[in-house]
Structure formats: structure tokens, C-alpha cells
Amino acid sequence: MSLAEEEDAFLSNIFMALAHPTRQGILRLLGQSRASSFSDLLEKLNVKDSSTLTHHLKKLEGLVDRLEDGKYVLTDLGYMAYNILRRGDLYAKVHYSDVQKELRERSLRNPLITFSLILIATILTTCIPLPLGGFWVPLGALFAIGLWRIGFFVAGCYLVYWGLKHILPEFGFSKQLALYITFVIFGLWWLFSLV
């Protein structure tokens, strides 16, 4: 067999092993635990019957070896396949976290969307009718100024907090400090506005 044919056989064994989730599970378990019995593999992989597991172990010939005590271990080629799986898992986690990060940025944490939603909620709240002396009076007619002040106060708090939360970590401070600073700034502003 030529060197090229050996390399092709080597790669086809690895790709065949990685082509089925049960075989991937076998490689992961043996890569992490070093050696496992048939019953351990059957239990941890949640395979329905022993013939299915036997079939997959036969497919992993050259990657998985059976010791004299009956336990299964990975061969050198099996460890190469296991490392490929680990790299794939790491890539999937990194890619997933990037996707999650992008979704968070597009979510309601976006300050412009949240600011607008708070103001819309304030407008809708001022339009709620209340019964007063036999007439239905819009809530805004009674409390419009107070509600608008509260709406702008909440929206302002959110904008300041969101900005600080993204700026402070750049200077080595925690995101939690942004919440404390926001409370102090707007707490003092609220107190002075009451005086």
C-alpha cells in the first residue's frame, strides 16, 4: 500500500467515525475517561440495545481497542479523531457565543429601542381613561406632568446605565459599578428636583 493510500485509509477511518453521533459519543467518552467497559458505554450513551453498540464499536476498528480486562480504550488514531471532535466542539461554542452576543446587541437592550418603548408606554399610560364624577377622564389629564417626568426619568436612567455599562469595562471597572453610579446620579437628581 502506498503512502497516499495509507493516508486516504487513515482519513476515511476518522471521517467514518465522526459521521455518526453514537460513534462520536464513544470517542468522547473514551477520550475523557481513558477506559470504559461495555456496560458503562451502553449506560452513558443511552443506547437502546447492546447489538447497536457492538455495531458502532466494530465500525470504530482501528480507533478503539479492547483490553484484556474487557475495557475499551482509544488507539493513537482514536485520540486523533477525539482531538478533531474537541476542536469542533470548541469552534461550535465560540461560534455560538458570537451568535448569542450579536442577538443580545439586537435585543431590547439596545438603548434607542428601549428608550422609545419607555416613552411609548408613558404615552399609552396617560391615555388610559378613569371614571371621575360620572365621566371618563383620561389619566393624562390628571397626572400627565407626573407621568411624563417618571417616563423621562426611567428612560434617562436606562440610557445612562447602558452607556456606563459599556464604557466602564474599557477602563477596568465592573459592569455592576454602572448600576451604582446610575442610582447615585439619578437619586441625587430626584432629591434635588423635589426640593
In short:
The chain is mainly alpha-helical and 195 residues long.
Which descriptors apply to this entry?
elongated; 4 strands; 8 helices; mainly alpha; single chain; Arc Repressor Mutant, subunit A; two-stranded antiparallel sheet; 195 residues
Structure write-up:
The longest helix has 31 residues, at 76-106. The strands form two sheets. The chain has a two-stranded antiparallel sheet with strand order 1-2. Strands 3-4 form a two-stranded antiparallel ribbon. The chain has 195 residues and is mainly α. It has two domains: 3-100, Winged helix-like DNA-binding domain superfamily/Winged helix DNA-binding domain (Arc Repressor Mutant, subunit A), CATH 1.10.10; 108-194, no CATH class. It has helices at 3-18, 21-33, 38-44, 50-59, 76-106, 111-126, 139-167, 175-194; strands at residues 64-66, 72-74, 129-132, 135-138. The radius of gyration is 31 Å and the shape is elongated. 73% of the residues lie in helices and 7% in strands. 11% of the residues are buried.
